[in-house]
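so i finally got all the pieces together for this one. its three components total, 733 residues if u count the protein bits. some of the lines might not be protein, just check the labels. i wanna see the whole assembly predicted at once instead of chain by chain like last time, that was a mess tbh
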Amino acid sequence: MKLTTLRNLAIGLSTVLTFGTAGGASAETLRVGMECTYAPFNYKTADGDLAGYDVDVASGVARIIGAELEFVCQEWDGMIPALLANKFDLIIASMSITDKRMEKIDFSGPYRFSTGRMLGAKSKEMNLFDDAGNPIPENFNGLRVGLERATTYSSWFEDILPGADVVLYDGSEPLYLDLQNGRVDLIMTNPMKAHLKFLSKEDGAGFEFKGPTVDEVKYFGIGVGIGMRQGEDELKGRLNVALKELINSGELETYALKIFPFKLHKDEWGQ
Amino acid sequence: MSFDFNLIAESLPLMLMGIGITLKLLVISGALGFILAVCLLLMRISGRWYLNFPAQVYIYVFRGTPILVQIFIIYYGLPQFEGVRDSILWPILREPTGCAILALTLNTGAYVSEILRGGVLGVGKGLLEAGSALGLSARQKFIYITAPIATRLALPAYSNDVISLLKSTALASTITIADMTGIARTIVADTYAPYEIFISLAIIYMIFTFGLQKLFGVIERYLGRYTRREG
Amino acid sequence: MDVLTGWWDDYFWGALVVGKVFICSLGLMIIFGLLGAMAKLSNSRMAQNIAGAYTVIFRGTPEILVILLMYFGSAIALTAIAQIFNPDIKFVDVPPFWAGTIAISIIVGSYATETFRGAFLGVNPGSIEAARALGMSNLETFIYVRVPEMWRLALPPFGNHMLSLIKDTALISIIGLNETMFVAKQAITVTGKPFTMYIVVGAIYLGFSTVVTLFVMGVEKYGERTTVGAK
């Protein structure tokens, strides 16, 4: 019995050391971190395959720069710490390029819009924004807001509406579930996903957008990009070249059209 | 790798704000769980199969599945049913704290009932026979003989379970509760410094556990005050 | 129920992962437990103190915290250690499977330390004296007298430790291990039916617990086969 466990230990240790000595981000294999539970951008299908816009972007970029890909699933709030702890080399998980994040990690150019919008029940009258598109803090009183930890939406709320009653979640799916069952009155999340996966389905029939789309660059950045550790300028250069090629060749648009009837990026990002 | 002590100094007060919630979860679940455990225990030792069997099944299910799964089923799973949302239980289930207390209570109730049963089985038969000889009824024997002795016997194992309960409260953070662990995870998400924050949090829990162990030590000594040999 | 089609095979693979974690962590847990027990029973003050610290730290810290720390911290710590030997190594990574397995082995190992220590102390001194009288060496005494008596004493609580290992596996889903809880989360993203998905997870874990419990009962019978008049 002891021999088996010793053998297990030996196998374990040697596996760890073998993987480890692979060195930094090489052109051979790039490990990509993503949430894997964020449909339609990165999620697992019933067949067990990863699918979504982010997955397509990752595969496209890898193909162009000639690298192999390995996907690593990671809970959102640990995404940046995990990157910094060398759990993977790239973050391709619909992560917005914000100043705050740029303090710790580096980003490629953007590959998708980043905006936020609030959702609430149709039956509840909510006058949350004035005509200029600014939120009215008093009208948020008594409303419970669901937000995902460590997102652009929670940062925006923290700064703009610090007095709001906010409940923080570990993932995005629970947000929708709890909105439906009335645990929260309002959520703020990605409007594209909200429309596709929720509002247009029967579960979301009683809900609607409350307020305009918010896209302040300070909180949402210029868009979502590929995250990587700081100092990887050579890799960043290659990724940017690859992204531009995807944009200019129209391939990025095909990824978007698989899910939405419109493209998710600005053509000027291809310059 | 640098250890950011400044960060720890700033974060400690924030994490300690969660103590109130942690304590609330611990005390309420512990108390309700104990009551549940006593009920289950009485069902188990009743000798009647229609009480014994359901209790056994309940205990088997709740000790055989992870507490995290139980929490998730109650918090995320139950609202899937319209009936639940319209029921009188909804005000409790709507709140994450309510769900956490429910899950922790159901779970600890199962474990504690087995611990109490162990204590009951440990009561010397001779003592019970003496009770019968004195003319005590079954109910009286239970209240005056079995219960006090079983409590004292079960105490060490019970104190272990209370500590387990404390550690399980950390799982409440997975259903949006801002207890110490929940606050810590939010801080880590904002500062990207898991090492410093989680180690400080671990130390807080250890101090808590130490305090609980001391408390139970005092209780054990008090309850056992007549059993120690003098001199 | 049809909502589960297509997910059964994912659950199967997830269950397989639970099994793998169990086997690996079982081995490690026994090693940690034995090392800790021997340290506590040894004559060296330092070994006793280290083992004492080991049990205090890991019995007092929530499992989820240890797992998170092991996941984020292990890479940093191991890289630092590895760089002492080979400066060319950029990083040493520990995948979630091993971070989680080692974490739960260390935690349950700290409980096992106490169990094994109690079991070793419970070995009948008369048997040891008899072994000496027969001229057995220390090693022979250990193998033929101490260990056989000790594992029979340790078995019931050891069974509980095995169950703890199984249930703690659910927590490793938090760091991305592709076991059943993680499968459930992914399935919910696509199907929106949390209750169904988590119930399946519960059932799978209950299945594992049942197998382990039956196994322990079987081993207990085997251990008792030469005992006359077992109660």
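Chain B has a mean pLDDT of 87.
The interface with chain A takes residues 76, 79-80, 85, 94-96, 174, 176, 178, 182, 185-186, 188-190, 192-194 of chain B (CB under 8 Å).
anyway lmk what u think
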